[in-house]
TrEMBL record, chain A:
Keywords: Amino-acid transport, Signal, Transport. SUPFAM superfamilies: Periplasmic binding protein-like I. Residues 47-399 form the Leucine-binding protein domain. It comes from the Bacteria. This is Branched-chain amino acid ABC transporter substrate-binding protein. The keyword Cytoplasm does not apply. It holds the Pfam family Peripla_BP_6. Belongs to the leucine-binding protein family.
TrEMBL record, chain B:
It comes from the Bacteria. It is found in: Cell membrane. InterPro entries: ABC_transp_permease (IPR001851), LivM-like (IPR043428). This is Branched-chain amino acid transport system permease protein. Keywords: Cell membrane, Membrane, Transmembrane, Transmembrane helix. The chain crosses the membrane at residues 9-28, 34-57, 64-82, 88-107, 114-134, 167-185, 215-238, 250-275, 287-308. The keyword Acetylation does not apply. It is a multi-pass membrane protein.
C-alpha cells in the first residue's frame, strides 16, 4: 500500500511548530504522568487482598490461633512461588470474636473499608451462618473452613464456598462402614444437645443402617451440663460401640467419668477428634481413651507413610511429629481441621488464575470459576489428600482418617475413600443469580 | 435537674435525627453500614434505658425481649412466609406478650432479686431456643432469605438489603422510638416512673399503683427491645441464639451506663462509643477488650453518670 497523500511524510508543511510542540507536550505528559504509571502498575502488581475472618477471641480462639499460623504459612508459600496471577497475596485479619453479629460486621468491613477481594477462613458454624447474608449482599466471595453442613445444604447463598475441608455429613457417612465392620453393630450415641450434636444424631443412624448396623440409643447432653455420670445408666447393656462427640472444656470430665463408670471393661469407643483439638491426648484423665478410635481430617501425629507433601506442609506450618508447635510441646495444634486453610487458599489461587481475576469487578467470574472446579490432586497444594469438588453445592469431598489411641499417640489405622463420603446434592447454588 | 424546655429538647432531638439523615449522604460506605446497625441496637438500648434509667429496675434478661422480636419476625418470614410488615408486627407482639408475662412474674421481686429472676428467665428462653432447634436453628441460627426481605409499599418494592433502604429503615425506627421515648419521659407517666425510682414508698403513699406502672414500663421496654430485634432480623438477615445469651443482656446495660442512664440520647451515644472503640482497637490488638475495659474505667472515673448524664449534671441541666 502506497502513501499517496503523504500521510506519513514528516517533511510535509502540515506539521507546524505549534502542532509539534503540542505533540511533544502531550507525549512528555503521558510519559511522566505519575497517576497513569501508578495505575498501570497497580493493575499488574498490586496485592490480592484476602480478608481473614479470624476467631482470635471467644470460644474459637484455639482454632483461630492455628488457622492464623496455617494461613500465614500458605500465603508465604504462595508468594514465594510468584503469588496469584503474578500478584502478591496480602492477608488482612479482623477478629470476629467467634460471634455471628460481629462476624457479619467484619464481612461488611472487609467489603466496604478494606475492600478485600475475598473473605476467608471462618470456622464456627454460627459465625458462618451469621456472616453469609452480609457476604451475599456485598457479592463478596466467602471461602469458609468450617466443616459444617450448612454450605452443602445450599441454604446459604451463591457466594459462600467450602472447597478445602469436607463437611460433617460426609465425614459421618464415611465413618459408618468402618464402625460397622470393625467396632460393632450396636451403637449408642452420646452428643451435645445443640446443632453440632444434631448433625451426628441425624446422619449417623441412616449411614449405619446402610451398613447393617444400628443406633440403639441416642443420649443428648445439655450444653450447660458439667457432670455426666447420671447419663451413663441410659447406655443399653448390649451396646457394642459408644459413639461420642462431646466438645468444649467438659470433655475431660466426660472421659474421666466414663472411665470411672466402666472401669476396665468397656464397649468400643469411637469419637470425633473435634472434642480434643488443641488438647494433649496425654492429659491427665484421658488415659481411658487408650485403645479407642477417632476421626481425624488430617492426622495430628506424623505417620510413617506420610507423603512428601504432608511432611513439607507440616514443616511449613511449624508442627512437630506430635502435632504440637515446634519448640513448644504444650501448644497442641488443631491439625485435623487447619489443613483446610492451606488447601482453601490454593483453591482460591487456582480459581483466580482460571478466572483471570484482576479485581473486585471480577468477583462474579471468580464465583463461576470456582464452581467449575472438579478435582484437586494430592500434592503440595492439597497435602491432606485428593479431593473432588461439587460446584453445585460449593462443597469438596475427600478422604478421612480413622486413628487409634495407642502408646500416647494417634496412629492412623484406616483411610476412607472419597466415594465413602459422597451423597446426593440437596440443591444447586448455580441457579441463583450472581 | 432543671425543667427541660420543650422547644429546646425537641429541637435537639430533631437535630440529631436530621444529622443522622444527613450523614447517610456523606459517610463512607463502611461507616454508613455500621451506623445503620448502631441505630438498630441503640433502639435496644433505649428500650433498656426506659426500665433501668427511669424506673430504676436493673434487668439482666433483656436479651430475651430482643430475641423474642428477632425470632418472632425471623421465623414468621422463614417458616410462614410472612411479609416484612407482618413479620415485624409478629416480632413486636412476641416481645410485648413475653414482657407482659415476665413482668407479671418478675415484678413480684425487686433489687438484686429482680436482676437474678430476669437473668434466669432469659436463660430459660435461651435454652428453649436451643431445645427447639428444628425450628430455631439452635445455636447455629437461621438465615432470613434475601428474597423475602423486601418491603412492598403499593407499587414500590424496597429491598432491605440495599444499603440506603436499610439505613433509612433503621433511621425511621430509631426516630420513632427516640421521639416516643422523649414523649414518655416528659409525660405525666414518665414522671411517675421517675418518682418510683426515687422513692417508691412515697409514690405509693401518693396513691399511685406501683405494680401496674412498673408492669406497663416492662411491657413498653420489652416491646421496644423486640422492635430492635425484629428490625435486626429483617435488615441483617440472621437470627441466632447468641442474641439471646447473657452477653446480649449485659451489652445494653453497658451502652446505657456509658451514654448516660435516664437520658434520652445516652443510649445512642453509648452504643456508638462502644462500637467504635471495639472496631478501632480490634484492628490493633487481639487484647482489645483490655483497652475497652480501660476506656470504661476512665469513663467511670471522669464521667460517673455516663457521657450525657455527666454533661447534663455539669453543663446542660435541661437535657432530657
Amino acid at each position: 500500500m502506497t502513501d499517496k497523500n503523504g500521510f506519513f511524510d514528516l517533511s510535509r508543511t502540515g506539521l507546524t511548530r505549534r502542532t509539534t510542540l503540542k505533540g511533544l507536550a502531550a507525549g512528555a505528559g503521558l510519559a511522566v504522568a505519575p497517576g497513569f504509571v501508578r495505575y498501570s502498575q497497580a493493575q499488574s502488581s498490586a496485592p490480592i487482598k484476602i480478608g481473614f475472618q479470624c476467631h482470635r477471641t471467644g470460644i474459637g480462639a484455639a482454632y483461630g490461633r492455628w488457622y492464623d499460623r496455617t494461613t500465614a504459612a500458605a500465603v508465604k508459600a504462595i508468594n514465594e512461588a510468584g503469588g496469584i496471577n503474578g500478584r502478591p497475596v496480602e492477608v488482612i485479619i479482623e477478629d470476629d470474636g467467634t460471634d455471628p453479629g460481629r462476624g457479619a460486621e467484619v464481612v461488611g468491613k472487609f467489603a466496604t473499608q478494606h475492600k478485600t477481594d475475598i473473605v476467608y477462613g471462618t470456622l464456627f458454624s454460627h459465625v458462618v451462618i451469621g456472616s453469609a447474608p452480609a457476604a451475599g449482599e456485598a457479592k463478596m466471595p466467602y471461602f469458609v473452613v468450617s466443616e459444617g453442613h450448612h454450605v452443602a445444604s445450599t441454604k446459604l447463598n451463591r457466594y459462600v464456598f467450602q472447597p478445602g475441608i469436607t463437611d460433617v455429613k460426609s465425614q459421618i457417612q464415611a465413618m459408618a462402614p468402618w464402625i460397622a465392620a470393625n467396632a460393632g453393630k450396636k451403637v449408642t450415641q452420646i452428643f451435645p444437645d445443640f446443632a453440632f450434636g444434631y448433625d451426628h444424631r441425624d446422619y449417623l443412624p441412616p449411614a449405619l443402617k446402610a451398613q447393617g448396623a444400628e443406633v440403639i440409643a441416642q443420649i443428648a447432653i445439655p450444653p450447660t451440663e458439667s457432670s455426666f455420670t447420671k447419663y451413663f445408666p441410659q447406655i443399653p447393656a448390649e451396646t457394642e460401640v459408644i459413639y461420642h462427640v462431646m466438645v468444649g472444656p467438659a470433655v475431660l470430665t466426660f472421659v474421666k467419668e466414663l472411665g470411672e463408670f466402666y472401669g476396665s471393661s468397656r464397649p468400643q469407643l469411637f469419637g470425633f477428634i473435634d472434642s480434643l483439638e488443641a488438647t494433649d491426648i496425654n492429659s491427665p484423665g484421658l488415659e481411658f481413651l487408650d485403645g479407642s478410635h477417632f476421626w481425624e481430617g488430617s492426622p495430628r501425629y506424623a505417620q510413617t507413610d506420610d507423603s512428601a507433601a504432608q511432611k513439607a506442609y507440616r514443616a511449613a506450618v511449624g508442627i512437630d511429629d506430635n502435632g504440637a508447635a515446634v519448640g513448644d510441646p504444650k501448644d497442641v495444634s488443631t491439625a485435623a481441621h487447619m489443613f483446610g486453610c492451606w488447601e482453601t487458599l490454593y483453591v482460591v489461587k487456582k480459581a483466580m488464575e482460571d478466572a483471570g481475576y484482576k479485581g473486585p469487578e471480577d468477583r462474579a467470574k471468580l464465583v463461576e470459576a470456582t464452581e467449575a472446579l472438579t478435582e484437586f490432586a494430592e500434592g503440595p497444594e492439597h497435602p491432606q489428600g485428593p479431593k473432588t469438588f461439587n460446584g453445585k453445592i460449593h462443597q469438596c469431598f475427600g478422604i478421612q482418617n480413622i486413628s487409634k489411641v495407642e502408646g500416647g499417640r494417634l496412629n492412623v489405622v484406616h483411610k476412607t475413600k472419597i466415594e465413602d463420603g459422597l451423597y446426593e446434592p440437596e440443591g444447586d447454588y448455580t441457579t441463583q443469580p450472581l | 435537674m432543671k425543667e427541660a424546655s420543650p422547644a429546646k429538647a425537641y429541637t435537639l432531638h430533631l437535630g440529631v435525627i436530621v444529622l443522622l439523615f444527613t450523614l447517610s449522604f456523606v459517610l463512607p460506605e463502611y461507616h454508613h453500614g455500621l451506623l445503620a446497625r448502631i441505630m438498630v441496637l441503640a433502639v435496644f438500648a433505649m428500650g433498656y434505658n426506659l426500665l433501668f434509667g427511669y424506673v430504676g429496675l436493673l434487668s439482666l434478661g433483656h436479651a430475651m425481649f430482643f430475641s423474642a422480636g428477632l425470632y418472632g419476625a425471623g421465623l414468621a418470614v422463614i417458616h410462614l412466609g410472612w411479609s416484612v410488615p407482618a413479620a415485624f408486627a409478629a416480632g413486636l407482639a412476641c416481645g410485648a406478650l413475653l414482657a407482659l408475662v415476665i413482668g407479671l412474674l418478675a415484678l413480684r421481686t425487686s433489687g438484686v432479686a429482680f436482676m437474678i429472676v430476669t437473668m434466669m428467665f432469659a436463660q430459660v428462653f435461651y435454652l428453649i431456643i436451643l431445645y427447639f432447634a428444628a425450628w430455631t436453628g439452635g445455636d447455629q441460627g437461621l438465615v432470613v432469605p434475601q428474597s423475602a426481605r423486601v418491603l412492598v409499599l403499593g407499587d414500590t418494592s424496597l429491598g432491605l438489603t440495599d444499603p440506603t433502604v436499610r439505613y433509612m429503615s433503621a433511621l425511621v425506627l430509631f426516630s420513632i422510638v427516640l421521639l416516643a421515648a422523649l414523649g414518655i419521659v416528659r409525660s405525666r407517666y414518665g414522671r411517675v416512673l421517675v418518682a418510683i425510682r426515687e422513692n417508691e414508698e412515697r409514690t405509693k403513699m401518693l396513691g399511685y399503683d406501683i405494680f401496674s406502672n412498673k408492669l406497663v414500663a416492662v411491657v413498653v421496654s420489652g416491646t421496644i427491645c423486640a422492635a430492635s430485634g425484629a428490625a435486626y432480623a429483617l435488615l441483617f438477615g440472621y437470627v441466632g441464639s447468641t442474641f439471646a445469651s447473657v452477653q446480649y443482656s449485659i451489652l445494653p446495660l453497658l451502652w446505657v451506663l456509658l451514654g448516660g442512664a435516664a437520658t434520652t440520647l445516652g443510649p445512642l451515644i453509648g452504643t456508638l462509643f462502644m462500637y467504635y472503640v471495639v472496631d478501632i482497637t480490634s484492628g490493633y490488638t487481639s487484647a482489645y477488650l483490655l483497652i475497652v475495659g480501660i476506656a470504661l474505667i476512665l469513663l467511670v472515673l471522669f464521667f460517673p453518670r455516663g457521657i450525657l448524664g455527666t454533661i447534663r449534671q455539669r453543663w446542660l441541666g435541661w437535657l432530657p
